[in-house]
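INTERNAL AUDIT FORM
Audit reference: QA-55
Scope: verify that the stored structure record matches its stored sequence.
Auditor: D.O.
Record contents follow.
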Amino acid sequence: MIQAEQFLKDIVWKDKQFKLIDVRSEREFHHGAFPASVNFPILTDRERKEIGITYKQLGQQAAIERGQEIVAPFKAARVDSWNRELAQVEKNLGFVTCWRGGLRSSIAFDWIRASGREVKRIQGGYKALRLQLLKNIREFSERDSDLMVVSGQTGAGKTKLLQQLASEFPKECLDLEALACHRGSSFGAHPDRPQPSQQNFENNLSLKLHPDIKLFVVEHEGTLIGRVKVPDLFYRKLVQSPIVFLESSMEERIRHTFQEYVANPVAHFGAQAAHQQLLLNLKRIQRKLGGARFNQIAQSLGQAFQGPGETCDLLKHSEWIQELLTQYYDPMYQHFLNKAEEQAPIIFKGAYKDCYGLLRDRLNRLRS
């Protein structure tokens, strides 16, 4: 048995290669799980539902007996699947958990031990791990400044800057949009990748907040990234942290936007699918744009994907991109920035190279 706090401190934070097997049902696991854990249920969703009905109708002992009957034919196969996972790490780095570290993980623990392999249970189960992860977010959010925020207008290249920094400082860069699987704007959904559950977003964020890191760099975000909500305490800290403002010309912003929202989707999904997705995203903000402006941008977007020649051409798409940036995103972002400046100072404004150099130097000094 190992406590959740000790598991984080002595295993996870020390970057040890562990295996955590979560034996809850698929539905429970999808709702929220410890990052990097693997789901091998001792009871599937269907089996768990049947046992729940038995418990309500006949009581705990009857439910336990029915569970044993259901699982008996599959016991060997399930133990084999657990052992294959555990065989990938050293014997003292295999762990098993369920919701509260109770009956299910106890049974799995006994079965694995009986098969001749060592494993440890997480005391308190996933619930205890979850509470520790939330505690870590709270404690980080209550500390003095450990954040520097990269801000800038839509298309300025903030994500690109963060990703370049992350190639050298992977632990110091918090890419909230990557954790949320969403680029943060009305056009930010990834058609081929769903967003995580709220719990899983928070869990992954917490693990990024390593207690030994002295400074994190994060992109300016709103309270929502797609449908995922940034935790209140963390967001309060974010909007009170010093800002590095990335300045980019309109030409640069159009090029960045084109690459992210046109060229990349066309390369992955084809021109027709990319066009339909862009039009769908545009319709989501139709009321905010107004009818006339929406029709104008939609027409320009359609024309960019029609006619002879390459449909993924920067010049063809520049008109609707610039219209969208100047008429929709810039006024909205300026309002957002005005509110942000009331709470946090802009400590530097500059071009991409200058912002990157400042942040890189700051992180290097803190590492040494």
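Auditor finding: record pair retrieved intact. The chain has two domains: 2-133, 145-367.
Action required: none
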